[in-house]
Specification:
Blueprint lengths: L15 H8 L3 E6 L5 E2 L14 E6 L2 E10 L11 E8 L4 E5 L13 E8 L5 E7 L8
Antiparallel strand pairs: 1-2, 1-3, 4-5, 4-7, 5-6, 7-8
Length: 140
Amino acid sequence: MTEHQKPLPPISPDTKEFWEGLRRHQLLIQRCQDCGTYRHYPRPMCHNCNSMNGQWVKVRGRGKVYSWIVSHHTVHPAFPTPYLVAIVELEEGVRMITNLVDTSPDEVYIGMPVEVFFEDVTEEITLPLFKPIDKGSRRT
């Protein structure tokens, strides 16, 4: 693995299980053990019932594009522009901010079906990116 030049996300006690799952190429999301609500970003308390009883569950990593932009603004020299930033709504109802890969801006649309793709960037960090499930099935 080559040295990664881009800034990496910090790992905290609240997010440790999320990042460890990604290293194993598993997308783990928190779910409340009391009311069953999924939550992302990782945090200790359920936003629905205020329970502190959460568990990590493996999800399929499939969803749809909820919103997206093409970034043309250079925020860091290691991030060449343009690139696609999306909010993906997973089947479980949570939304994740991510990058879209294997597609171009003129192919992306709201509701586009996508699936997680794992990019191993260092020994410790694997990033969850998303790509189209079927590039042949465009909206009508």
